[in-house]
Design brief:
Largest sheet of chain C: 7 strands, mixed
Bound molecules: flavin mononucleotide, iron/sulfur cluster, FE2/S2 (inorganic) cluster
CATH topology of the largest domain in chain C: Rossmann fold
Structural class of chain A: alpha+beta
Helix content of chain A: 40-55%
Number of domains of chain A: 2
Oligomer: heterotrimer
CATH architecture of the largest domain in chain C: 3-Layer(aba) Sandwich
Order of helices and strands of chain A: HHHHEHHEEEEH
Number of domains of chain C: 4
CATH architecture of the largest domain in chain A: 3-Layer(aba) Sandwich
């Protein structure tokens, strides 16, 4: 399997940054970047990455189960990650999350039937001073309110 | 939008000195060079490595990642004569709830970090470094990647740094969702492509770190303090703070505060001054109930305990810690049972599972506190929380266990009455789905 | 000894080498510090926190499994603080443990149960819902119940560090963390089952033992594994004459806890329904069951008649019978039947080695030497597949002492993973490549050389000459294949050499000659299957007597089949690949069978052969008195030890008949006749069937 030229270039640079023989260092970022491009850590991704880095399947499975950003199942086109940890909790993160559930009609780590949205309650996103915070894929949204969330979802829906 | 706060007169901006006002664009290399960027590494390259370490020692700089370990001392543990390669690792995992300062430094002044790393690398005789950034920070990874490319282009990084013949390479390394990977040895495991399980210490990273080679691991903010220390001297920096607590630090104000944001204050500034003057006081005109002064792992301070200098030693004396500089403000309406439950949910989720007391202890705490949050439980549960925490404290493999136990104990002790009152209000002991005992011995 | 430190543990001064872990130092002082994750010989995890102790001047409790002893250290292992910590660890462990002890296989021999007994609180304050994950089957032999798992990582370590298989991993995190197999939902591995044995609780259970028995219902019999030549000790758990399981948890024997799939699971052939349980006689061309007395009478009459008319006998011995049986068989042949036509399937050229090393002492390596030698050289053998214990030893030596291993083989082998150098050479051409290794080998303190069946005859002499030229002490192992292959040679199941390699006056026919001879009158096969794969005796009319467990190709050709016992059913001694003699004891019973010694003894009595009493003790006594090198100390045998037979003094001025050496070609999952009747081995999908595959 091959990836886009940009990703291949990133991989090449990445792999070269670890000491000789220690290319396994690239495993986790490679899985994550491949997932971003492919949509999930598929069997082919596992096979390809483990072949390139010369790691066994079980070594890949070990990290797959550990890192929360990695997923075997494709998420929605827009993956909404709402923080409910302390600073966000204090400023309405939980309500925001509940609101998102109602609005999208899905629960935590679920996906809308059309595959457009998925939702996840996440731990601290490092955005505490601008709480409540959330991410849509990699884009941060700060000082969220249920109204702003509605607008956000509606505008994403329109983008489709 | 900008994440930079407008400077407050009581602030002392050193790390943030390039930001007299808020802005949206990072300082790229030309601007950095115009504002004496990379002068410190030029100076450091002319110094003996020991001198660099001495200067950092003199500055009384302590690690800004959480543990507050003296940075110069840490660097001096690396055996420069070891035949093995030596490495520099930047801890940009920024996972401690309440903490959001490293992103400001990386996002607005990326070259400052690169320069700090270069100086650290020079001090220990390293030729390579990685910036381990949490995966959610893709935005900052991109900024750093661009800054690194700029630095390579201008000869600050590469096989011949500024023509001195010294080789130094730097790359970003992306994490993928794990708080435990902020713990330095778990971070190193993760850097090597493994699960973020912590390592046995000793050996410490200074002797056997990344890829079993001598390594220094420091927080982003720690490295970012270094260029100015080299430029102006360690003594200058130390004088900004209190004895053994040199310099300034970033404070991340969040929660129930009028002006949340990231500010730079001298070490030792009174906590109430920070909250009331810089932060503008508790929001909505409410009263202060408590403060989490150093990230979620630091024991809460009740309002009446907050009139203290915010530095490592003073907070430790008050039974808490300065931690990562995250300062979370809780107003009088805060439901402490809820806060407790949310924090315990976090630690149970983030426990790597390696050791028994943390794996089982955090989960147990999560379950009890979730029940208490619902108002189901008895006084005995609060005692049990205390007992579980005691059983974890100091007995787990890595400090995550402590990080969960300390706040649990502090909240359960300091807000016992409040939680009891909640239990008495609710229909205590009523069976609720998900809370029936399964096995009672 | 330099670098010794003295510390005080519970008031007792203990002196140990610097670097010794406190938990081991305590053991030396007779103090048992409880631990789950600590496992001697494997990497330190310090994860269970059960071994915490109080050390003076250290504020926190310290994990004694990760704490090196230091001069002057004062350790307390049972203070109230320590006991309290252990109690809380147990309490933690039990919070999510299912406590299904009444139906758990491990009940009665569970370390968590034992620790709960010792440190458990009387009452649980855990009122929450337990975390649960369903049990999984990973292979026909291995089941995993994550709910019971306490995450001590022993299984992961024995598989990875011990075997080099690394089939197990750890996934998920926190309370959901669990062990995972290498192929997503199943295991592909050596199926050795060691992970099951080391599991301190009932999280890993064995497909063969699950829900079969309680540990206190069984008798425990010390036996030697009957499958390969390595001679692992195995403890058979026997109930009502049936083997229920096999393992070696007491770590006695040369193998410690190690056993391969055959040793741990391949015992089921014993109870295969195809076991012969009655003698058979050919009547009208068909084999019909008869009584023992009728069968023996029949044999006696045919043998007596053949002796009387000076007919020709040929005897083919076994590689899986005891030394006593082999010794008695050659006596039976030589003194009773008056023939030197006796041989067996030779799977390694021991004879040339004994000759080439004649006169030396200390030139044959023991299994223990493989763990202590400074370097090892493997020629022409797929060690991990054919000699699992030896492979394990070399790996452990490399892990613990960094002793390098050099391999010269026709194809890739697992030892390549860590070998200092791996060379490829055609079978038979291995010795030719040794010069390339000379400099590296010369630099070592000493060396053990292991060679397979492709190195034979002159090549063995060249190998020994090469060893001599290195100028360092070199020891050798000739890799023979079956449990008593070595004993068969030593006991003189050879046409030209008697017991202890004593040349006989008039050599008889070797195996090939017997097969090809057209004029044999009686062919006696005691536990071998020379007709495997469609081969035939050229003597079409010969009367064929076979002692066997199953109706093998050879038994089907027989005129009389006498149902014999497997090694697990009898007492005796066997000699392993390194020449180490060990005692094995009878465990299970299979109705209707007799040991080869009893069969031969009964026949000798009826035939009037004066060859001694067929009692195992008596024959062993005679062996010890008369066979060179076999005067092994009885107390060593009696206490379950291994005594190396010193067969090297003297010369063997005979042709070693290297062409008679044929490798069995068995793999980790096969073992000649017995392997074919082990349903369990046959069921394992990964049975590779080919050697020299990584
Ligand atoms: C559970 C846990 C999480 C941590 N997370 C972080 C983190 O996200 N960022 C960080 O800089 N340090 C973190 N630390 C602290 C690091 O282990 C380490 O002390 C730090 O990287 C050292 O750098 P410093 O001396 O510059 O502070 C964490 C520690 C623990 C125990
Ligand atoms: S305290 Fe134990 S389980 Fe928790 S994160 Fe550290 S090692 Fe993992
Ligand atoms: S608590 Fe939500 S971003 Fe930190």
């Amino acid at each position: 399997m091959t990836f886009s030229p940009e990703l291949e270039a990133r991989f090449a640079k990445m792999i070269a940054s670890y000491p000789p023989g220690r290319q396994k260092g690239a495993l986790i970022p490679m899985l994550l970047y491949a997932q971003d491009e492919v949509g999930a850590v598929t069997d082919e991704v596992i096979e390809e990455v483990s072949r390139r880095l010369n790691v066994s399947r079980v070594e890949v499975e070990e990290v797959l189960g550990y890192y929360t950003m990695l997923t075997r199942e494709p998420r929605g086109k827009y993956h909404l990650q709402i923080c409910t940890n302390i600073s966000c909790l204090l400023t309405g993160g939980e309500e925001l999350f509940q609101h998102a559930c109602r609005k999208l009609g899905i629960g935590n780590r679920e996906k809308t039937p059309d595959g457009q949205f998925s939702l996840e309650e996440v731990e601290c996103l490092g955005a505490c001073s601008w709480a409540p915070a959330m991410q849509v894929n990699y884009d941060f949204h700060y000082h969220m309110t249920p109204e702003k969330l509605d607008q956000l979802i509606d505008s994403l829906r329109k983008l489709q | 939008m900008t994440l930079l706060a407008p400077p407050h007169p009581l602030e002392k901006r050193v790390l943030l000195r390039r930001f007299p006002e808020p802005r949206t664009e990072p300082v790229w290399i030309d601007e950095y060079l115009r504002t004496d960027g990379y002068e410190a590494i030029r100076k450091a390259l002319a110094m003996e490595p020991e001198q660099i370490v001495d200067e950092v020692k003199k500055s009384a700089l302590r690690g800004r990642g959480g543990a507050g370990f003296p940075t110069g001392m840490k660097w001096s543990f690396v055996d420069r004569k070891s035949p093995k390669p030596k490495y520099v690792v930047v801890n940009a995992d920024e996972g401690e709830p309440g903490t959001c300062k490293d992103r400001i430094l990386m996002g607005y002044d990326p070259h400052r970090l690169i320069e700090g790393v270069l100086i650290g690398g020079r001090a220990i005789g390293a030729n390579r470094g990685w910036i381990y950034i949490r995966g959610e920070y893709r935005e900052y990874i991109d900024i750093l990647d661009r800054a690194i490319a700029e630095a390579y282009e201008r000869g600050f990084l590469g096989s011949n740094v500024l023509g001195t013949g010294w080789e130094f390479h730097l790359s970003t390394h992306t994490g993928a969702g794990s708080y435990e990977c902020g713990e330095e040895t778990a971070l190193l495991e993760s850097l090597e492509g493994k699960r973020g399980n912590p390592r046995l210490k000793p050996p410490f990273p200074a002797t056997s770190g990344a890829f079993q080679c001598p390594t220094i691991v420091n927080n982003v903010e720690t490295f970012c303090a270094v260029p100015d220390i080299i430029l102006n001297g360690g003594e200058w920096y130390a004088a900004l703070g209190t004895p053994k607590n040199g310099g300034t630090r970033l404070v991340c104000l969040s929660g129930h505060i009028e002006r949340p944001g990231v500010y730079e204050v001298p070490l030792g500034m009174n906590l109430l001054t920070i909250l009331n003057e810089i932060g503008g006081g508790v929001w909505k005109g409410r009263k202060l109930k408590a403060v989490i002064p150093g990230g979620s792992s630091s024991p809460v301070l009740k309002a009446e305990e907050c009139d203290i200098p915010a530095d490592y030693d003073s907070l430790a004396k008050a039974g808490s810690m300065l931690g990562s500089g995250a300062t979370v403000v809780l107003d009088e309406t805060t439901d402490m049972a809820k806060v407790l439950a949310r924090l315990m949910k976090f630690y149970a989720h983030e426990s790597c599972g390696w050791c028994i007391p943390c794996r089982e202890g955090t989960t147990w705490l999560k379950k009890i506190t979730a029940r208490l949050e619902e108002g189901i439980g008895s006084e005995r549960d609060i005692d049990t929380i205390d007992r579980i925490s005691q059983s974890m404290l100091g007995r787990t493999f890595c400090p995550l266990g402590d990080a969960a136990a300390m706040p649990a104990m502090a909240i359960a002790r300091k807000f016992r009455e409040e939680i009891l009152e909640k239990l008495s209000r609710a229909d205590a002991f009523a069976p609720v789905e998900g809370a029936q005992p399964l096995v009672v011995l | 000894m330099a670098n010794m430190v003295t510390l005080t543990i519970d008031g007792k001064p203990v002196t140990v080498p610097a670097g010794t872990l406190v938990i081991d130092a305590a053991k030396q002082a007779g103090i048992d510090i409880p631990a789950f994750c600590y496992y001697e010989g494997f990497s330190v995890q310090a994860a269970c926190r059960m071994c915490l102790v109080e050390v003076e001047k250290m504020p926190k409790l310290q994990p004694s499994c990760a704490l090196p002893a230091a001069e002057g250290m004062v350790v307390h292992t049972e203070t109230p603080k320590v006991v309290e910590a252990r109690k809380s660890t147990i309490e933690f462990l039990l919070t999510n443990h299912p406590l299904d002890c009444p139906v758990c296989d491990k009940g009665g021999e569970c370390e968590l149960q034992d620790m709960t007994f010792r440190y458990g609180l009387g009452e649980s304050q855990f009122l929450e819902i337990k975390h649960h994950a369903d049990e999984k089957q990973w292979s026909p032999l291995v089941f995993y119940d994550p709910a019971r798992c306490i995450l001590c990582y022993r299984c992961i370590r024995v598989c990875d560090e011990g075997l080099g298989v690394a089939a197990l991993g750890l996934s998920y995190r926190g309370v959901s963390a669990e062990i995972i197999p290498n192929k997503g939902d199943h295991l592909e591995c050596d199926e050795c089952g060691w992970c099951i044995d080391v599991c301190p609780v009932g999280a890993l259970t064995s497909g063969t033992y699950r829900y079969k028995s309680r540990p206190w219902e069984m008798n425990y019999v010390p036996a030697i594994c009957t499958h390969c030549s390595n001679g692992c000790k195995t403890t058979l758990s026997v109930r009502n004459g049936e083997i229920i399981r096999s393992n070696n948890r007491d770590r006695s024997g040369i193998n410690g806890e190690f056993l391969c799939v055959k040793g741990r699971f391949g015992f089921d052939f014993v109870h295969n329904e195809e076991r012969l349980q009655s003698p058979l006689i050919r009547k009208d061309g068909k084999l019909e069951p008869v009584s023992w007395s009728e069968a023996l009478k029949f044999v006696v009459s045919r043998v007596r008649e053949t002796i009387e008319r000076n007919g020709k006998f040929a005897v083919i011995g076994s590689t899986r019978t005891t030394n006593e049986e082999n010794f008695y068989l050659q006596k039976f042949a030589r003194q009773g039947l008056r023939t030197n036509n006796i041989d067996h399937h030779r799977s390694g050229d021991v004879i040339t080695l004994v000759d080439a090393l004649a006169g030396r002492t200390d030139a044959l390596a023991t299994v223990g030497d493989l763990y202590t030698c400074d370097a090892a050289l493997v020629l022409g053998a797929d060690l991990a597949q054919q000699h699992p214990l030896l492979a394990y030893q070399l790996r452990a030596n490399w892990r613990h002492h960094r002793s390098p291993v050099f391999v010269v083989t026709p194809g890739p082998v697992r030892e390549d993973q860590y070998a200092a150098r791996s060379l490829r050479a055609e079978a038979g051409g291995e010795v030719e490549r040794l010069e390339e290794l000379r400099e590296e080998l010369k630099a070592r303190q000493n060396l053990v050389v292991l060679y397979g069946a492709s190195v034979k005859g002159e090549a063995v002499r060249r190998l020994v000459a090469f060893g001599d030229s290195l100028g360092i002490p070199v020891k050798y192992v000739c890799l023979v294949d079956y449990v008593n292959s070595r004993g068969a040679v030593d006991m003189g199941l050879l046409p030209h050499l008697g017991p202890g390699y004593k040349p006989v006056e008039i050599p008889g026919m070797h195996l090939d000659a017997m097969m090809a001879a057209p004029d044999l009158d009686v062919i006696w096969v005691a536990g071998a299957n020379p007709l495997e794969g469609g081969r035939e005796f050229a003597s079409k009319n010969a009367f064929v007597i076979v002692h066997e467990l199953f109706l093998t190709e050879t038994a089907q050709r027989a005129d009389v089949v006498l149902p014999s016992m497997s090694l697990y059913e009898k007492n005796g001694t066997v000699t392993n690949v390194c020449g180490e003699v060990q005692r094995t004891k009878a465990g299970p019973k299979v109705m209707g069978t007799k040991s080869d010694l009893d069969i031969l003894g009964l026949l000798a009595a009826q035939l009037g052969f004066d060859i001694g009493i067929p009692s195992q003790e008596k024959v062993l006594d005679e062996i010890r008195r008369t066979v060179r090198g076999y005067n092994v100390p009885l107390p060593v045998l009696a206490t379950g030890g291994a005594a190396q037979a010193a067969v090297l003094n003297g010369n063997v001025p005979v042709d070693a008949q290297p062409e008679q050496v044929r490798p069995s070609g068995d793999t980790l999952f096969t073992s000649g006749t017995l392997g074919k009747y082990s349903k369990r081995l046959a069921q394992l999908m990964e049975a590779p069937g080919r050697l020299f595959q990584p």
